[in-house]
Amino acid sequence: MCRSRLKLNKNEKLNFMDKLKIMDKKSTISWALYDWANQAFFTLIITFVFATYVSNSVANSIDEGTAMWGTAISISFFTVAILAPILGAISDKKGNLKPWIGFFTYLCVISTALLWFIEPKNEYLFIALILVAIANFGGEFATVFYNALLTEVSSKNNIGKISGWAWGLGYAGGILCLVISLVFFVLPDTPPFGLDKTNSEEIRVTALLVAIWFAIFSTPLFLFTKDRKQTTVSYKSAISDGLKSTISTIKNFSKLGEVGRFLIARMIYTDGINTVFVMGGIYAAGTFGMDFQEILIFGILINVTAGIGAAVFAWIDDYIGSKKTIIISLLALIVLGTLGCIVESKDLFYLIGAGLGIFIGPIQSSSRSLMARLTPDNKKAEFFGLYSLSGKITTFLGPLVFGWVTILLGSQRYGMATVIIFLLIGLIILIPLKNINK
Question: Where are the alpha helices (DSSP H) in 225-291?
Fold first, then answer.
């Protein structure tokens, strides 16, 4: 009788452990799907389709549209950079993160959906810029709290794989959503659902596609991903304590040690990477004479290889460590970037672009996992707020230097060479970093 009961308890325990593993796996997959969900917004709205639509069709001129779009996005980024550490600190005091992710996700979704009403007339320009700035604000803030959940869905032994796979999944989601929008809406002579091309409805509908995509594929995170436990701290106390914590952290930034060193290194090498994405199309057109279709193919190529690189290097991250993965990737980018400034062949430039993508992906995913490894458990959201700050506060610098060097020296090749300098300085600052968790 006792043996039978003991055996039953053992089986029950095994069944419970099996169920727990399934629940943990579902929690992790649901978390990773959020990368798949939100990247569609950044790919179609911020980078490719809607940015081009507003600049070319809504504004009076391309120059005006480009300047106004850049200003709106910069203001949005700057606001996120300033507020992210503060809201992160407040959320750390409250504990749970999913309510924050949910609020900012749907702020982005609703603002994006409203872009459908932006007709190709200059009178819609101001409202378009406001909606895009709000949507970007929501998308970026949701990502801050989403990143802080990484340690809740991973362990010390697989944090690199989880971050890398999710990042690769994000690239895949963004590219698939872009392809769907191009194949089914933008490129056909007669788009579906009676969309009127004379009123740019085949372009505007991509905003609805992105909003629906983001809403649907972010849902599993809210349903199945485990959250941090909510504390009993009141919002009033959380806000007060969060502000004090942020001020203290910033005042004592020099005492943050390895975290501070990493944030400075990331700030600088991220400027170089951002410049590749922001100015890469302009460089391809000006230096290699690529037309719009070729630039679009080049952009998709970089994004595809970046996703593959993030997924493949996810294994390497956990094996040799996040820091070493970033160093290897930076070295590869410096070599490939140098070749990109020298080669004359368009075909070779395509190959170099593919190589750049392979190593850009791992830098982004391993930077996230390294931050998670370095950050104290009780300050995850606050420190990921600082992480967001380090990636946004100087985003203007790389493209600005690129532009001025190009003007002063009379060649885009010299402008692109400045990217190598940003990567090299970031590498030099990163190398002495001591990371006890790999």
Answer: 235-251, 258-288
3-state DSSP call for residue 417?
A: helix
Q: Which of 170, 169, 148, 171 is nearest to 159 (CA)?
A: 148
Q: Identify the CA nearest to 242 among candidates 122, 360, 86.
A: 86
Split into its structural domains, the chain has a count of 1
Three-state SS for 274?
helix
Q: Are 206 and 242 in contact (CB under 8 A)?
A: no
The residue that leads in pLDDT, 338 or 25, is 338
The CA distance from 55 to 234, in Å, is 45
Residue type, 78: F
Burial readout 9-18 (b: 16 or more C-beta within 10 A, e: otherwise): eeeeeeeeee
Q: Is residue 156 part of a domain?
A: yes
Rounded distance between C-alpha atoms, residue 194 and residue 51, angstroms: 24
Report how far apart, in Å, the C-alpha atoms of 432 and of each of 174, 273, 426 are: 35, 21, 11
User: How does pLDDT run across 235-275, given as a tens digit for each residue?
Assistant: 677 677 667 766 776 666 666 778 888 888 998 998 888 77
Q: Which residues, 6+ apart, have CB-to-CB distance to 256 below 8 Å?
A: 249, 263
Tell whether pTM > 0.85: no
Domain that holds residue 379: 31-227+236-430
20 domain-assigned: no
- What CATH code is carried by the domain that includes residue 335? 1.20.1250.20
d(CA 414, CA 341): 7
In-domain check, residue 12? no
Distance in angstroms (rounded) separating the CA atoms of residues 140 and 147: 11
Distance (Å, rounded) from C-alpha 44 to C-alpha 177? 8
The token pair that represents 315 in the structure block: 């294994």
Of 45, 357, 46, whose CA–CA distance to 181 is shortest? 45
CA distances from 70 to 39, 66, 166, 259, 416 (A): 19, 6, 28, 30, 20
**pLDDT digits over 74-93, tens only?**
788 788 878 887 887 777 77
What the block records as the tokens of 112 is: 């994006």
- Which residues have a Cβ under 8 Å from the Cβ of 111 and sit 6 or more positions away? 131, 132, 134, 135, 138
Residues 6+ apart with CB under 8 A from 283: 412, 415, 416
Domain assignment present for residue 173? The answer is: yes
Return the SS3 of 125: helix
Q: CA 171, CA 358: separation in Å to the nearest integer?
A: 12
> Does position 159 have pLDDT exceeding 90, yes or no?
no
* Residue with more model confidence, 291 or 84: 84
